Amino acid sequence: MKVACTVWLGAKGVKASDLSRFLLKEEQTAAYSVEIWKRFRKWGGIPTGITQNIKDLLSSREIENIFENSDFIYMLNQASGDRQILAKQLNISPTQLSYVTNSNEGEGLLFYGNVIIPFVDRFPKNSLYKIMTTRLEETSEAG
Questions:
Q1: In a 3-state reduction of DSSP, which class is residue 116?
Q2: What's the rounded Cα separation, in Å, for the pair 94 and 68?
Q3: Would you say 33 and 4 are in contact if contact means Cβ atoms under 8 Å apart?
Q4: Strand pairing class (107-112; 115-120)
Q5: Known Gene3D superfamilies for this protein (predicted)?
């Protein structure tokens, strides 16, 4: 996924989350993405994907394999329906889920294997923030 997403990094207004959604929307590109994911892992690579809504990623059984074969998940604030899916899939407790319920910027959960860690990360806005933010009005292109 990251290899495919790199092509779009310079495109104005296109974010990696949008590209992942497009790649997974059609059956043919979804199947190809799953195959790439599996091969990269087999070759020792670290495939990386991003989605705004986990419901998009889990819309088909084939794509669900990507999620089930992911060792590391970085979660920020989640919509109610997505929180329910994540709680069930990852066995997240109600207390842990509170870290992705109406959370502030930079707050969430890290999921690594069977370990779930809450975090708060206040990233300085006068640093790499402008190339990392998903808020278009705060990007370096908008400034």
A1: strand
A2: 21
A3: yes
A4: antiparallel
A5: P-loop containing nucleotide triphosphate hydrolases (3.40.50.300)
